Amino acid sequence: xxxxxxxxxxxxxxxxxxxxxxxxxxxxxxxxxxxxxxxxxxxxxxxxxxxxxxxxxxxxxxxxxxxxxxxxxxxxxxxxxxxxxxxxxxxxxxxxxxxxxxxxxxxxxxxxxxxxxxxxxxxxxxxxxxxxxxxxxxxxxxxxxxxxxxxxxxxxxxxxxxxxxxxxxxx
Length: 171
What we know:
The model has no long low-confidence stretch (mean pLDDT about 90). By secondary structure, the protein is mainly alpha-helical. It contains 6 helices and no strands. Helix 4 (about 70-90) runs antiparallel to helix 5 (about 95-115). The chain is elongated, with a radius of gyration of 25 Å.
């Protein structure tokens, strides 16, 4: 990507990041940025890290701001913020409601605004993306198991040939 396009991309991402930090819960007026600033300690959220494979926070996003090279990377990363929260916390929780505020902003404000510059972007289907990644991992594991099985079979054949040679040379 040409340098000026990359700079333009990063300027837009930083703008959107800062806009997200200002979001408030409409019921309480509570700013949402601090709630999603850091990853919670494992002992405070039992099972979270077993369930959530791609934890993301505003602190992580801030570290990555200057590393994005396309808008899709940013959109997928930021979409994981509400997705993870909704997946872990139940619909009756405050966190779920807060995540819904963020997701609504992403879908109705950020994506449409970014479409002015990147007309083909859409809100990602993270369930499908995760399923695709799981399928890829499963296929890679199967390929690895098949390769290991073939190697074991090859070793077994070599051992048999060596034993046959040994027997023939012995007599």
